[in-house]
Each structure stands twice: as C-alpha cells, then as structure tokens.
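If your schedule permits, I should be very grateful for your opinion on a structural question. What I wish to show you is a protein chain and, alongside it, a tokenised description of its three-dimensional fold. Would you kindly read the sequence against the tokens and tell me how you understand this chain to fold? Here, with my thanks, is the record as I have it:

===
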Amino acid sequence: MKSRIHPVSRPVVFRDRAADVAFLTRSTADSGERVAWEDGNTYPVIDVETSSASHPFYTGGGQVLDTAGRVERFRRRYGTGETPASRPDER
C-alpha cells in the first residue's frame, strides 16, 4: 500500500435510533460527538436512520407478495393462446 494516501480507519459506534441498537465497528467516518462503550472506552458516535436492526429486509417486516397468483392472473389476462387440443400434430 502506498503511504499517506489512505484514510485513517478507527473504531466508531453507529447508533440506530429507531431500533435503539448500537454497533461498534471500524470506519473512516468521524464525529464530534462521543459515547462511552461497554468496554469503558469512549468512541465517536454516528447516528443512522436505518440499520440491519430496523430495516424491513432484515427484520422480515417487508411486504409479502402474492407469487402463487401471478401466473394465473397473467393467463387470465393474456391467455396462453395454446391449448392441448390446438397443438400441431403431437400424436
């Protein structure tokens, strides 16, 4: 790695206010606000709106789609255009 071109990576706490969860990880982001962590040290804290603890994709709160009725609805709307009796010479 070339020296002096990479940003400094440091421990940072990301706090999800919606789920009331905090994660300690490494990041190049910095913040003027600090928080005391479980290990007794203080780290910069960055508040986020959504994380894996509150996003519907990870929590299973997303909308469930009706996948079973899609094919039937398509066939009703557009028809298959082909029935077993109208197939050419499959005897």
Observations:
- The beta strands are 10-16, 21-27, 34-36, 42-48.
